[in-house]
Amino acid sequence: MSTQKTVNQTRTNGNLQPKDFASDQEVRWCPGCGDYTILKQVQNLMPKLGLDPENIVFVAGIGCSSRFPYYMNTFGMHGIHGRAPAIATGLKISRPDLSVWVVTGDGDALSIGGNHIIHLLRRNLDINVLLFNNEIYGLTKGQYSPTSPQGRVTKTSPAGSVDSPFNPLALALGANSTFAARTMDRDPKHLQSMLERTAGHKGTSFLEIYQNCIVFNDGAFSPYTDKSLRDSTSLYLEDGQPLVFGSGDAFGVRLDGCRPEIVDMRSGKWSADDLWVHDEKDRNKAWMLTSLFDDNTREGKLPRPFGVFLAEERPTYEELVRDQISAAMEQYGEGDLEQLLTGEETWTVK
């Protein structure tokens, strides 16, 4: 009751705060889990949407990440394993006015939920997908997941996983997603900016978040999240800007035909005009960024990109459905459900 009272009072004043989106439930993740940071940044984002809590819905499946709806003072649903996209799809079609969020993990979304996530992406409903990728099954105690790298030793792969892992962003692009981005739990400022971009995109927004599982896969992303390393290993994408990284932008990425290569900007041989300029609307280059840059088997390893890989405009699924229904009603009228169910294409069995 106290939480609801606070929200009502604040709404009257027209000034919602992050605390108004925090539920009265005790947050229960392992101490040091990256989920805490993500939760905090999502709650910080909510007032920026300009929506009352009852107009926002968080839908989750099964996993550590899927506890999320309990901790948000919004509507929400803790669904079944992998089916959050299906639930969110039905909700968005029936209530297109709502801000709908799917919170999922690499196991929930890409294993049992793989079929559902690809169809959500291709349909392009105006839904925001936050995929927490920790490259492990955390809730069920440390089995390898669809994103675990080959050779990863886990409880179900004691000799090392032999599976070829999914690349979540490459999967999203292959499913014709209109928005694909990546961030990390240990860079709150970048995480917040990517959440803002995710919320602002009209269509299915797919945000992969590198999330550290401190118990079963600690340090999986340390080359990119460790402050002493990430300058030389992480590439932050900015639309219309050249691809540069390293302390003082010491290195750049240029295209030699279709092959990206690292150049030393300190040599004086190269300038910003020689470098690959990021274009969020270029699907071909987005594909190169997700595939070539994430391939750790390549010689001359490329930095790992973070930011918005692709942002396209395309009609949303719910808009097309509403247009289709409006056209049918204009042509045929309201329709008669009883006549449909008992029409000429039914028969009696004696």
Structure in words:
This protein is α/β, with parallel strands linked by helices and 350 residues long. It has a domain of 219 residues: 3-Layer(aba) Sandwich (Rossmann fold), CATH 3.40.50. 32% of the residues lie in helices and 17% in strands. The protein has an eight-stranded mixed β-sheet with strand order 2-1-3-4-6-5-11-7, with helices on both faces. Strands 8-9-10 form a three-stranded antiparallel β-sheet.
Ends apart, CA distance between termini: 59 Å
Catalogue the unreliable spans.
1-10
Provide the succession of SSEs.
Answer: HHEHEHEHHEHEHEHHEEEEHEHH
The CATH homology group name of the domain at 2-220: Thiamin diphosphate (ThDP)-binding fold, Pyr/PP domains
| Gyration radius, rounded | 23 Å
Question: What features would you highlight for this structure?
Answer:
32% helix, Rossmann fold, 17% strand, globular, single chain, disordered N terminus, 350 residues, alpha/beta, 13 helices
Short description:
The chain has 350 residues and is of the alpha/beta class. The chain is built from 13 helices and eleven strands. It starts with a helix and ends in a 9-residue tail after the last helix.
Reconstruct the topology from this structure.
Blueprint: H1 2-13, H2 35-45, E1 56-60, H3 68-71, E2 75-78, H4 84-94, E3 99-105, H5 106-112, H6 114-123, E4 127-133, H7 168-174, E5 179-184, H8 188-200, E6 205-210, H9 222-225, H10 230-233, E7 234-236, E8 244-245, E9 251-256, E10 259-264, H11 283-291, E11 304-311, H12 317-332, H13 337-341
Parallel strand pairs: 1-2, 1-3, 3-4, 4-6, 5-6, 7-11
Antiparallel strand pairs: 5-11, 8-9, 9-10
Helix pairs in contact: 2-8, 4-6, 5-6
